[in-house]
Structure to design on (678 residues):
């Protein structure tokens, strides 16, 4: 059923009026005529009288017998002559002309038709015409004001422009998020949980004289779960939770942002103790004097000043805790970051392999999965993925499985989803000539060969010459999850990236534009090694990297022209050295690279097993396996000794200590099994 509306009533009334006018309206309205027809009626003696109205219109009154006569006539126009009032009406050219024409008609018949003149003024119509403009103005104004003031509780409309549009969550919310829904982020949850615990058990802290932190800033890359963590705080805390975005403070009206900040904290004080969450605080917290505009009265700066005052101003906000999230902490104002406002800065980084497995477990709850699916394998295949990326992988895998009419989501669906997200959509119908395809195959084979031979390069996962997105081919690697990188590792990575360009040069004797992305990466990494990491002997242990973002608005470089020339020269030396390394590797393994390229042309996709069959196992893999076998042999030997002592009746205390020491050493050093698993 449609919703009840007054428009239905209006439609019924309109239909009634139209129907009445069609059926009955004709009997009450005079018939329009003209003087020639009326003249005949005057001659025949059918006209009783004529009334001239406002010297423009003549109303003709017929006798009763004439009305009946004309109704029965063959002329359809006279069938609905009204019984009362004027029966006919016509427009006259002038009063004098009507008198002359009427005299001629009367002389022909010898009868006299009385004529009266009436001047009527419709006072009601005049009143309507005079009041109509005012009524329209008042109606339009009432409609606008009603629309603007609608939704006053949510801050909608111009009358509530200064009201904060904060969403309120409480413990009775049916769709609340808890820490069980947040995988990983263990350290962040510990710090956040301390704030929640203070609100729950404030007396325990107050007895020791502790004060609750006034604010906590969640910092991290996009998609790592900052907003989700704040939602979990709202679900875990038994206090009101006010959530608002930083962009909600910025409006086209001057002073609205500061007014909304005041209203937000006023609401928080009324609900205290409570938590206020400001998402994307960099929208209003950008450092003053560094905004994009050069206006002296910037609305965002006024909003920031009001926020600083509310967080730690003259009036204290007892029981109000401010949480905020941003991925650009380097551009925030220093006054906002000081102790007393945001006391804690909680880092929410990209998840490691263990946290990724936990995140996969959360997002795989609602999927119908293959029983043999290894979730730790999925975590190993997604280094550098954020929580949002993992959620996207799970959804893409389900879509791919449904597209192929599968009954469950299998391992190959997840691998296809990862390739789809990293490389883009496959473009198998892209028109590529055989010669271009051959160049692409040798280019990708060069990447794969150099990265496989050089021990510090990332291990290869697969190589393909199927176009994806803007790329004509791609080589997938599985980089090690390390916190620091050495110069040797970076040089091997540079050589592996240049392997495609070197392969084209050696096999075809010419260069192509296919190495554009490779050269861009190499140039950026070489300059970073020289100017940021201090890996150049000529430039020395200097770093021109600015982690604070202070140089964004600077118009000059932080070094001289001579240093700039040295940086350029050293970056070129590093690239040339890496190029020479790639040339040496490809010349020494030319046969294997050619075999790999031909295999790519045949199958379009080559995996790790095929590369290992051609070039043999990597040096790192051999060393890792040897260490693992040695560790197992040592553990077996220690275990056999403990068994012998136990059979002789001795207490193997020293042996037990040796086993524990062996485990500790294995934990301190990189485990071969763990590295192999990653």
């Amino acid at each position: 059923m449609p919703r009840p509306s007054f428009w239905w009533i209006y439609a019924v009334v309109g239909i009634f009026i139209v129907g009445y006018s069609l059926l009955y309206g004709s009997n009450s309205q005079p018939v329009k005529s003209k003087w020639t027809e009326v003249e005949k009626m005057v001659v025949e003696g059918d006209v009783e009288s004529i009334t001239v109205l406002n010297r423009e219109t003549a109303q003709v009154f017929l006798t009763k017998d004439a009305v009946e006569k004309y109704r029965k006539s063959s002329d359809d126009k006279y069938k609905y002559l009204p019984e009362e009032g004027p029966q006919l009406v016509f427009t006259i050219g002038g009063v004098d002309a009507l008198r002359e024409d009427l005299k001629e008609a009367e002389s022909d018949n010898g009868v006299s038709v009385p004529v009266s003149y009436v001047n009527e003024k419709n006072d009601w119509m005049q009143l309507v015409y005079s009041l109509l403009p005012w009524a329209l103005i008042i109606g339009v104004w009432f409609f606008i004001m009603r629309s603007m003031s609608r939704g006053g509780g949510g801050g909608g409309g111009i009358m509530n422009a200064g009201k904060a549009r904060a969403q309120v969550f409480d413990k009775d919310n049916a769709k609340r998020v808890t820490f069980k829904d947040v995988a990983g982020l263990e350290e962040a949850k510990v710090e956040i949980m301390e704030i929640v615990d203070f609100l729950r058990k404030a007396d325990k802290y107050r007895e020791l004289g502790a004060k609750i932190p006034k604010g906590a800033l969640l910092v991290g890359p996009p998609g790592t779960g900052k907003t989700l963590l704040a939602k979990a705080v709202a679900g875990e805390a038994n206090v009101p939770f006010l959530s608002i975005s930083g962009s909600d403070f910025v409006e086209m009206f001057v002073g609205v942002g500061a007014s909304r900040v005041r209203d937000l904290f006023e609401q928080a004080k009324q609900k205290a103790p409570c938590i206020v969450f400001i998402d994307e605080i960099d929208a209003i917290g950008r450092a003053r004097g560094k905004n994009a505009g050069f206006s002296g009265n910037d609305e965002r700066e006024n909003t920031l000043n009001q926020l600083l005052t509310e967080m730690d101003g003259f009036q204290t906000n007892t029981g109000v805790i401010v949480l905020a999230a941003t991925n650009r902490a380097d551009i925030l104002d220093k006054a906002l970051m000081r102790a007393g406002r945001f006391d804690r800065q909680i880092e929410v980084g990209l998840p490691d392999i263990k946290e990724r497995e936990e995140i996969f477990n959360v997002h795989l709850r609602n999927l119908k999965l293959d029983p043999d699916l290894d979730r730790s394998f999925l975590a190993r295949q997604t280094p550098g993925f954020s929580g949002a990326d993992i959620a996207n992988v799970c959804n893409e895998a389900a879509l791919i499985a449904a597209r192929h009419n599968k009954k469950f989501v299998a391992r190959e669906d997840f691998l296809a989803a990862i390739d789809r997200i990293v490389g883009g959509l496959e473009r198998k119908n892209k028109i590529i000539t055989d010669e271009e395809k051959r160049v692409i195959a040798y280019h990708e084979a060069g990447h794969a060969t150099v990265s496989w031979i050089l021990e510090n390069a990332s291990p290869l996962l697969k190589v393909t010459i199927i176009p994806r997105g803007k790329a004509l081919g791609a080589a997938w690697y599985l980089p090690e999850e390390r916190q620091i990188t050495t110069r040797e590792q970076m040089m091997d990575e540079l050589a592996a990236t240049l392997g495609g360009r070197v392969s084209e040069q050696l096999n075809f004797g010419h260069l192509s534009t296919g190495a554009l992305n490779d050269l861009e990466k190499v140039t950026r990494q070489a300059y970073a090694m020289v100017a940021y990491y201090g890996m150049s002997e000529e430039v020395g242990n200097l770093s021109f990297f600015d982690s604070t973002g202070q140089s964004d608005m600077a118009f000059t470089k932080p070094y001289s022209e001579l240093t700039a020339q040295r940086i350029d020269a050293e970056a070129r030396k590093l690239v040339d050295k890496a190029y020479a390394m790639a040339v040496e590797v490809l010349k020494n393994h030319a046969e294997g690279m050619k075999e790999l390229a031909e295999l790519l042309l045949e199958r379009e996709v080559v995996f790790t097993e095929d590369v290992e069959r051609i070039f043999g196992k990597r040096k790192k893999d051999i060393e890792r396996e040897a260490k693992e076998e040695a560790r197992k042999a040592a553990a077996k030997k220690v275990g056999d000794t403990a068994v012998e002592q136990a059979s002789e009746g001795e207490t193997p205390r020293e042996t037990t200590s040796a086993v524990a020491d062996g485990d500790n050493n294995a934990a301190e050093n990189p485990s071969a099994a763990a590295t192999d698993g990653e």
